[in-house]
Amino acid sequence: MDTDFVARQQSRLLGELSDFLAIPSVSALPAHAADCRRAAEWLRAELSRLGCPAVQLIEGDGHPVVWAEGPAVPGRPTLLIYGHYDVQPPDPLDEWTSPPFEPTVRDGRLYARGAADDKGQVFCLLKAYEATLDADRRPPLNVHFIFEGEEECGGHVISDLLRAEPERTRADAALVCDMSYYAPGWPAVYTALRGLCYAEISVRTLERDLHSGTYGGVAPNAIETLVRILAGLKDESGEILIPKLYKSVEPPSKEELRVWKKLPFDKADFLRDEVTGQALTGRKEYSIFERVWALPTFEIHGIKGGFVGEGAKTVIPAQATAKVSLRLVPGQDYAKVGRLLERAVAALAPRWADVKVTLLHGGDPVQVDVDHPAFALLDEAFASVTGRKAVRVRAGGSIPIIPELGLTGAPVLLSGIGLPDDGLHSPNEKLDLAQLWSGIEIFGRFYELLAERGGPTAPPPA
Ligand code: BES
Ligand code: MN
Fold this sequence. Notes:
- The chain is of the alpha+beta class.
- The protein has three domains: 5-193 and 365-453, Aminopeptidase, CATH 3.40.630.10; 199-249 and 300-362, Alpha-Beta Plaits (2-Layer Sandwich); 252-295, no CATH class.
- The protein contains twelve helices and 18 strands.
């Protein structure tokens, strides 16, 4: 690998990443569909520059998947690289110090929506690949790239593609860089991700909004009905009250619990610097790691209905909706949890309300067996640059397509170069440039180790 690559090209690299980040590829907002396509096109051009002979934009009913294969390197293993080019909506805009799509460096950190989640990390893997090209621009191993544009919004273009063409996941290893270090100086690989079941609950109690004086006292209020239902789904101790929800939850292994106990962790710092609240909530009988990594959650994301304009309007709302989701842990299945949620809501609904649950999207939890030899190679790459192997932790977040990446048996390496304070999905999301520069070296090193010792070669596609 060209170890001076970063030192010599920092300003070019920063310029390229800034161009990529300046494209507002917000997948959830229809107004940004053309921007999502521009981000896919940016990747297409970049992959062509890197020497991939035929880059494909694969269409479906949503934003395209970008697929590319580096030049074939016979006799060498195949690495599948996954990432996503879409980003979360940037609001609240007035909380950003610099605008979300005007990438800005302050104090060695690059601020922009997508800087860490996931464009900056996709960029890191691409530049690591570039750094390993030889004088004839040949890579050390076979690399297949798959980038989606709907990770953040629950689209299914990529899952439709992999269902129709599972051989695309045939590889000796799959690498996903959409996560963070456990802490500065502590690289991580992930043994599990939580799944997700996202739904909307809507309530109608009246044909139309009513005068709250004339009818207050007798007319059923849709918002009140909704919040009573929501309150019935979780108690103050943090226990979710959906019947049978915890039945299939598999507790973390003894080994995982042993490793978690030894991780550096300061509850007061965590509360102040990351959570930014006044107290931690949730099931006190479990450790914080168990609560964020190994237990399901129920969250209310937003409630709509009634009067929220300026001033005061006296009205009994006829209609109200809430967006909610559950995070799921190994042992749970999102289709089943969706049915449990529907049943629990139906049981809580009073007879005078029409209550509907619409399942919007989701994904199953993942558990990764980190004993495959590819993980030792990743450890070696991390150790050679940071002096420390990757700690085995879990993530509370979700990446719905991950279970499908491992379908043909490739070990799925979940890792990343982010830091816990990157502010994913929040205002002022950032990526520390030192993490990017060292990340390019780490993953370049990993590609080379895998090329040398990561066989056997995958069978050719059927
Ligand atoms: N990169 C995150 C997932 C993540 C977050 C992994 C934190 C590890 C730690 C990913 O882009 C993400 O945000 N996923 C969404 C998926 C959802 C919209 C289906 C999530 O977890 O909310
Ligand atoms: Mn995300």
